[in-house]
Amino acid sequence: MLPEYREEAKKRIVEAGLEVMYEKGYCNTTMEDIARRLDVSKPALYRYFKNKDELVIESANYLQTQYRDIKTTRNSDLCPVDSWIETFDQIMSPDIKIHALYFEILGMTVRKPEVQKRSVEGMKRGLDQPALEIAEQQRKGLIPSGADPRTLAVAIVSMFNGMRVLILLGVDWEEVRSRWIEILRNLFGMTGKGEQAECPRDCKWFEDCNTAPEA
């Protein structure tokens, strides 16, 4: 089999596996379920993955790659609030099953070293990249320079995962989004000559950023 066909087949299996795991959860998903979703035999899956754990590791890599692709399209010349609203809208699904699977896989890091290794690598990238972007935005005067970039990155990533919990526990997605924007505005502050600058009216997020969350 040509390598490109093998990689495409693995991708299809991973995507089907994620679909089933979103519906049933990792623990309740079997390789037979995934094979049925793809309309192939179960032995056909074992040509690409030795077991379900190997599949979930590849699934975690797949999700992290999607996340990195979203992040790397961001432009440091944009308003920092703008870029993180885009990140929220592209990643923070209102579907609680997606967040449930995220935390289920995260919980596996305690007992499965390979999952832990990949998760740690993903988190490192998830902190390093925004810290670099924040430092660049500070250099350009988009963000106040007083705060340490990595501290801000840790705060943002921590809050982002906290937002996942809120959605998982039933808080309305629209409220979570509006709180996210309000927190970002307070965290970053848009400075101009030492004072907080007004959000430009031609910004596509003007209404979002200037509408107070409902109490």
Layout of strands and helices, then pairs:
Elements: H1 3-24, H2 31-38, H3 42-45, H4 52-72, H5 80-91, H6 96-107, H7 113-139, H8 149-168, H9 173-188, E1 191-192, E2 195-196, H10 206-209
Antiparallel strand pairs: 1-2
Tell me what you see in this structure:
- With 215 residues, the chain is mainly α.
- It is 68% helix and 2% strand.
- It is built from ten helices and two strands, in the order H-H-H-H-H-H-H-H-H-E-E-H.
- It has a two-stranded antiparallel sheet with strand order 1-2.
- Strand 1 (191-192) and strand 2 (195-196) form a beta hairpin.
- Helix 1 (3-24) crosses helix 2 and helix 7 crosses helix 8.
- The longest helix is centred in the middle third of the chain and has 27 residues, at 113-139.
- The protein starts with a helix and ends in a 6-residue tail after the last helix.
- Mean pLDDT is 82; it is low at 191-197.
Q: Percent range for helical residues?
A: 55-70%
Strand content: under 5%
Strands of the widest sheet, in order across it, are 1-2
Distance between the termini: 59 Å
Tag the structure with descriptive keywords:
mainly alpha, single chain, elongated
